[in-house]
Amino acid sequence: MSPLSHKARRRLMVVGAIIGTVFIIGIIIGAWAALRGPKVPDDKLTADAKKAVETAISAAGLDSRLYVMDVEPAARRGVVTLDGAISDEKVRTVVTQPVAKVRGVRKVIDHLVLLPDPKLGGKRYGVLAQAVVNFGDAPGADEGKHLVTQGLLGMVVDLLQEQSGWYRGRMADGYLGWIQAGRLVVTDKAGADAWLAGRRAVVTARTARVYETPSKAATVLGEATIGTDLPAPSEPAKAGFTKVRLPGNRTGWVESAAVRFSPAEQEVFAAKRGADGVIATARLFMGLPYLWGGTSGRGFDCSGFTQFAFRTNGYPLPRDADQQYAVGEPVPDRSQLKPGDLVYFSTYKSGPSHVGIYIGNGKYINAAGPGVVIYSFQPGDKDYSATLDQQYLGARRVIK
Questions:
Q1: Tens of pLDDT along 28-61?
Q2: β-strand partners of 261
Q3: DSSP for 258-320, written as a single string
Q4: Which is it for the CA torsion 123, 129, 132, 136, positive or negative?
Q5: Of 3.30.420.40, 1.10.530.10, 3.30.230.10, 3.90.1720.10, which CATH number belongs to 274-397?
Q6: pLDDT digits (tens, 9 = 90+) for 240-277
Q7: Residue 374 in 3-state DSSP?
């Protein structure tokens, strides 16, 4: 064999080896690509990941009124980063697993911040510092349709995060909302515990002025509405006035006739006063104007009204009508209603969207468009509401 032929054969062998290697590598790459799936554009993958998050939250039954679920997916070359904030590890589990299964996702990077925000340090509690404090649905929005609920002077809320001079807070009933920083006093756990310790003065009048000294001629420091409870130092009344503590290391005086006393915070509304107590409280507000998001003696929406009347008589309820509908025992037929039963209606949306309190004789009291009014189920009655009669959904019995 000539040297030239030998070299040619070697070249052919090398070329064949290279071609074979390239072929094998191609097969491997093709198989890996097939397993990974086709490449998905970043914008579509981001949209698919968002849809997966929304679907997972809905399927898990997580309520945005009770859980913070600010999850923002962003995709780049098959890697999805989850930014935002969550209030519970349950939310993290619910949203991350479905995103990882989205077609085209190779990796999920979790940057979700678990609230309370570590930036708050130990200052994770707020004492409401005004007679009635609005909670909004976003920073800078707590009026009109943006009002989601309200708190009363002296209530303590859990603070979850701060943004642009607003705090996201959680009420004792679990409800979330944004509060202007100037409407509360921020403190730590020791400060919150100290505020809630000791004897309480509970406002029983529709409103009670808080004076600087025990005299009606004194400077008015503010106002407290019915249902407010404040620390009351154990010292004798003066000239018919009781001394109370106010948020921010201040003190004031309220008329003794406008309050009752409780030995401890946990006993303020512990006594169960039955249907008579609930109905009597509800009747105090006859004619009070309706207020979307309202939960105080300055104005109620329908469920804020029922929650207040029940809570102050020993029966805690969730905030909204649909949440309250899940509490208590169903009343099978309207003919079986008893005073104190909660009656529900499907009004501006399907399901329980309006609620009232049955007071007997076919009538119920509710916060509706005209304000706090009494309506009747009985055609021909002067208080009959044909609209609500047709929208009646059912009833729940909370008071046994």
A1: 544 444 444 558 999 999 999 999 999 999 999 9
A2: 201
A3: GEEEESSGGGTT-S--HHHHHHHHHHTTTTPPB-TT-EETTEE-HHHHHHHHHHTTT----SS
A4: negative
A5: 3.90.1720.10
A6: 999 999 999 999 999 999 999 999 999 999 999 999 99
A7: strand
